[in-house]
Design brief:
Elements: H1 3-20, E1 29-30, E2 36-39, E3 46-50, H2 57-60, H3 68-71, E4 74-81, E5 88-94, E6 105-106, E7 111-115, E8 118-123, E9 126-131, E10 136-139, E11 144-147
Parallel strand pairs: 1-6
Antiparallel strand pairs: 1-2, 2-3, 3-4, 4-5, 7-8, 8-9, 9-10, 10-11
């Protein structure tokens, strides 16, 4: 098997799977580490969650936290990216049954996925997602950033 084909095989498999899924389930994918899951909903271009992070208090202070004691389950950072406009980032209280479990695939490092109104790139440094306007987010275990559209000169 040619080396180029072996390198492209994960991407080709992911692209075939993406195209074969129904519209509501398309783009349900994980980072290679399994720490980040991204999926589509009817109201967002893409939504990503991160299970474990090493964010410092100043970064966490930028998120709207629910009361952890009242939650009783898991508090997880959620990054929602609409087709237009900036992302919505918040902490959500829910259990494991919430995560989409069917038709998921791993988006290998170095590959990106284009969906209706968004593009996400999987990198060793985390997951970067942007909508068509250029708004988005970069999330990783070490930190997160809000991405803004480039300024036209």
């Amino acid at each position: 098997m040619p080396a180029n084909f072996r390198q492209a095989a994960p991407f080709l498999w992911a692209a075939c799977l993406f195209l074969s899924l129904p519209a509501y389930a398309q783009a349900t994918f994980d980072s290679p580490s399994g720490n980040i899951i991204c999926y589509r909903t009817e109201t967002t271009a893409v939504t990503c969650i991160i299970f474990e992070n090493d964010w410092n208090e100043s970064q966490q202070g930028g998120l709207a936290f629910e009361d952890e004691e009242e939650c009783g389950l898991d508090l997880t950072p959620v990054f929602e990216l609409p087709v237009q406009g900036p992302p919505n980032i918040f902490m959500s209280c829910h259990g494991d049954a919430f995560w989409p479990t069917e038709n998921r695939f791993v988006l290998p490092y170095g590959y990106s996925l284009h969906g209706p109104g968004f593009r996400c790139a999987s990198e060793k440094g985390g997951m970067n997602c942007r909508n068509r306007q250029g708004h988005g987010f970069a999330i990783a275990r070490a930190r997160y950033r809000i991405l803004t559209p480039p300024v036209a000169e």
